[in-house]
Amino acid sequence: MTIPVSPCSKGLMLLFVLLALHTTAQKISPYVQTTSKLLELPSKVLGETRTIYIHCPKADSTNPNKTYPVLYLMDGESHFDMLAQYADYLSRWDVNVIPQMIIVGIVNSKRTRDLTPTESIINYFGQPDTSKVSWMKPSGGNERFLQFIREELKPYVERHYKTQPYTILAGHSFGGLASIYCLLTHADMFQGYISVSPSLWWDREYVLKLTDQKLKKGAPLNKTLFFSDASEGVSDSSTFHTNLLKFDAVLAAKAMTGLRYQYNYYPKETHMTEPMLAYYDALRFIYKDWKNP
Amino acid sequence: MTIPVSPCSKGLMLLFVLLALHTTAQKISPYVQTTSKLLELPSKVLGETRTIYIHCPKADSTNPNKTYPVLYLMDGESHFDMLAQYADYLSRWDVNVIPQMIIVGIVNSKRTRDLTPTESIINYFGQPDTSKVSWMKPSGGNERFLQFIREELKPYVERHYKTQPYTILAGHSFGGLASIYCLLTHADMFQGYISVSPSLWWDREYVLKLTDQKLKKGAPLNKTLFFSDASEGVSDSSTFHTNLLKFDAVLAAKAMTGLRYQYNYYPKETHMTEPMLAYYDALRFIYKDWKNP
């Protein structure tokens, strides 16, 4: 037996088929993780345009004038996604152990130039690198790079974003060296300093010696500092780890008034895996006593 | 003295001014972190359309046919960004401790229904929750949820992405419970299992008892399992932590052939901060002996 199908019910059937197809079809679209921006910022100080990544917390509709601390991150191309994700996750309402933060990632142009304090050709193992073209050249531009942050980048961020006065400088390796150098020479620029595996070996321990010279015993230094290292110096028998121990000993001996600091050693991590744990621990340390207001 | 300005040089000056303005202007654009997609997948098994986040490694132009292990993550809305960032970072050429992976985040619709193995109204402290409307209701749909993964989600992912046979199931809390339940009842579905703070308290330790029943001493179970807990049960005097210790003891007593497992305890972390460390440690543990081919 066949049921006669009128043109009308045929149309109806087609509609059902189309509807059925529609409801069983998968839809795929881009997934937008976070509210981050890419800024091209021309710098007179550096004579070049710098790429900056800026990550903001999701807007709080109940508090549109809310302001945020700002973390300035060196090696933006390496660790910006990490810090943005850490800051978002740890400040979620159901995690809630640090405040929501703005993350500003500075992408390198000439990394060795910007993140080292002196001109030097002495390599990781204390030997002169006399090759004409070397990854160590040029070097010694950290002073100018900090000037760029102070006079151009920070004012831009403070003009365009809802910032709090509390700011953090964070870096890894040469960036860790630059973070300590900034604390020693321009402590007023930031309140918190994160230095993950600082390259204290640079220029025959220049910054290690500077630490001893600059810090006057018992003097006030109302800052927070987290520093760390991993298997460097153990895996490669360089002075990397002993330099960190010396730096830690200098801080202990100087007993600066108001300085809150923590040194973490991660012997199971490499120079490159360490940032994942160290940046987590650094944020937890800086905001140890923080309570959501 | 005034220098006469011709219309032409006026135009030239204007051009210079415009050029100067152009070179000092900041440019801002969206920052796209990762290559992730949002999929709306209709499920016949569940009778609803499910939202799925899919993260792929950046394409390798030197190896366009490269395939990847796949990690299936429960509570996608909570931990997808984290796992995507961890997988990308740890597989970078200069970090290189795990393979590049595809992360599939399953967003919850009815979380308690999908991630619990039995219907139960016994709450975290072992008391019946008799309220008509409760976050515990409905429950007991984990079997059907695993069927959805097995029959619909995995086939979709394997059809549309360059997958390897190696797959991991990862979850936290109820998701951790579901991960262990899957290992006990459908071990073939995955090769690796991650269970961060599993809610072994569910239904008077149902899954804990099932572990003892299902695992036959010395039987083959060629799987990798990472499980962990944090301050739960210490901070709240529940049986959370003692349940984990019991589970660990059962695994030791059963001495399954081929089972590689690790239990991490994070007493300083909360139920919600723990995933940041546990997912890191889980990936490192699963790929402990991995070498980039």
From TrEMBL, chains A, B:
Family: Belongs to the esterase D family.
A UniProt-annotated Pfam family: Esterase
PANTHER family, A to Z: SIDEROPHORE TRIACETYLFUSARININE C ESTERASE, SIDEROPHORE-DEGRADING ESTERASE (EUROFUNG)
Molecular function GO terms recorded: hydrolase activity, acting on ester bonds
Signal peptide (from-to): 1-27
Name this protein carries in UniProt: Esterase
SUPFAM superfamilies listed in its UniProt record: alpha/beta-Hydrolases
Alphabetic keyword roster: Hydrolase, Signal
Species for this entry: Chryseolinea serpens
Gene3D superfamilies (alphabetical): alpha/beta hydrolase
